[in-house]
Amino acid sequence: MTLLGRLLNNRRAGETHTAWNQPHLRGPELLALTSQDFDDGATMPLQNCAKHIGGADLSPHLAWTPPPPGTAQLLLVVEDIDVPLAKPAVHCLALIDPATGHLEPGALSARHPGPGVRVLRSTVGRGYHGPAPIKGHGPHRYVFQLFALRTSLDGATPLDRVRPRALLPTVPAPVLDRARLTGVFER
Known about the structure:
5% of the residues lie in helices and 26% in strands. It is mainly β.
């Protein structure tokens, strides 16, 4: 597996196709997004990684500053921008009640989401899927992106069945505010 990682080392999705760079999801960057588990740009703890590499697949603690008035819903998108594919892999997609100021560890679980959290389908399945980069591929960046939406996505389409790459382009503009936090993991 290490050989495969080295062979794919120069192949990475990059930031071009992230949710952050979609024109309709651009907006002010006044929100602050933090975690008690890791700092921006720092290594994510093993507990937040996939079970098959020794982790607990436990979503990290996340906290943010209050969203602006008029926020109907928060959208959280977690993407691996270093996956050796054409576009980043979505590790988690969730809708969050704007009255919620933080998420406890594990709140992005598909089976037992935290209060005010509705987990949607990711690239792999529903809920949070922790880092598990190809061994030897180098560091992978996992970008946690939080968007304050003026319009709720509830009722628009059957959200539980829509794939992330089909849902993200349908998010109505404007985004009132946004923030991002990047965790890193390497095997």
